[in-house]
Amino acid sequence: MNKTVNQKAWFLVLPVLLLVAFSAVIPLMTVVNYSVQDTFGNNVFFWNGIAWFEDMLESERMWAALWRQLAFSGLILAIEIPLGIYVALNMPKSGIWASFCLVLMSLPLLIPWNVVGTIWQIFGRVDIGLLGHTLDAIGIEYNYTQNFYAAWATVIVMDVWHWTSLVALLAYAGLQSIPDAYYQAAKIDQASRWAVFRYIELPKMAGVLMIAILLRFMDSFMIYTEPFVVTGGGPGNSTTFLSIDLVKMALGQFDLGPAAAFSIMYYLVILLISWVFYTVMTNLDKRDA
Amino acid sequence: MAKITLDNLAHSYAPAPKGPEDYALKQLDHDWADGEAYALLGASGCGKSTLLNIISGLLEPSQGRILFDGEDVTHAPTAQRNIAQVFQFPVVYDTMTVRQNLAFPLRNRGADAEYITRRVQQIGAMIGMEDVLDRKARGLTADAKQKISLGRGMVREDVNALLFDEPLTVIDPHMKWELRTQLKSLHHEFGHTMIYVTHDQTEALTFADRVVVMHDGRVVQIGTPQELFERPEHTFVGYFIGSPGMNLLPAEVRGDRAVINGTEIALGRSFGAPAGKVELGVRPEFVRLGDAGLPATVTRVEDVGRHRIVRAAVAGREVNAILGEGAPVPAGETLVAFAPEGVNVYADDWRVVPEDAA
After folding, report:
1. Which of A45, A114, A276, B179 is 20 to 30 A from B32 (CA-CA)?
2. Which of B235, B264, B288 is the last residue in one of the domains?
3. Running DSSP on this structure, what letter comes out for residue A250?
């Protein structure tokens, strides 16, 4: 190993460091700043150590929001991933209908979060909404502003409607990359439909599905706009997810210290889970190689 | 094992075929004898794979019937035909081990576990992969994967036929010989009906008892390697088989005489008076250079080691001759003659049968 040692090479990383500093580190530092200080007003701050973090870790409210959040992410993943795969398997492989399906599938993805929230907010209203009114008319008690189950159902169905397409499109791309010979060989080998899925389609989709799971997890874990527009976090706190709770704390109550500590922990949790995903993904690849 | 009969078979990929040019596979009647090894030889796009896929049931013919031992299977799905097929590019089940891959066709038919273990071990040895049986198939090289595909094709003992669709394309030359030899020995051992699709004449001629030559969606000749060499029924066979292929020269043929560019040559046999586009076909092995015959100009000499290929211009056409290493090669102007027993006469690309032989 005849490596040339030249410490000046560090200067080459400098532009990146500067860029990241301005785009991420410095804004984040203001949050860090708030999280370790307290004030009695008049813009005078004093050192508060890790007290806000301790407060937050002992806060039942935060834990409740975290469990709610995990339940939400878990549920939508459990629905969207299999549903997306199922849709992809049933999409036409080629021809005009394939293009038609692709366009149709992409439509929900192009609608802004706010608008999705508004659509479902109105759609589900008992007085004027098609869904809400219909359900009410056939005798199903449905009112997302008052009923816990109705609120959760609405928020989950809304997310499934909005994002299953993403999973389906990714899975479809994975399926399209499978050469015909695989299906022909499976016929020759007399594989059942299930075996074709289990041993050909699923392994070929594994890569894109991992990306789909990661994307959908991160996105759903940070969800804010849609449930906020539909339920505003209610009824009670039943759909108050982490982001909604954070905004309530930071802007509603102006508890900047605890909210800052909360933000940092929130950030670390997402980072941790994404890192775990990443490690599992790369190790899966390595194990097979 | 079964005799496979193609009855009035044809296939077109176009939904409403009009003329013969719309057919990827033109009308064909043929019996594939039980237990024989066939090679299906032809250039890319001549309909070889179409024919193979029709036999295995991956494709339904637009016309005609396929019979296995007299039983009509034209519309039967692949699974019912009990056929093994190996494709051009390796197909392995990535998440399975090599062992599981080989066992897969047997497991799907509910074979006995103890039998599967024994049979997989045997096939593993045959394709030289005993040592890696428990490895995941994903990380293997392309030729190892193709060996698995071959193994999966051979693992069932009771198949009606074994079909190979250019299976050795991705395998390196040294391994090609070995695998082809193993396929042959497998054929001798179990006597499966085998159909081997290839565009490589060496592969076809060394593998098969009988070679089926296809050209432009049509079977142009079925015969032993020797028949294909000595009496190509169609100019395509002459041109496609042999290295270099058969020389073709436009000629006027009357009885046992041919006239090429004003020079008369004797044919040794009488061919009557063939009409249409008449050509003489002579393999380079039967071309003599030197003292008599047609005037020619030597343009190039290629030394391929065991012999030399002389390329000469005769009456504006290129004529190839194969000469032994020791033989003198004339430079520039010379004369070429053809050994009469090596001359075939073609009218409109089809061989004219000499009168005394008919």
Report:
1. B179
2. B235
3. I
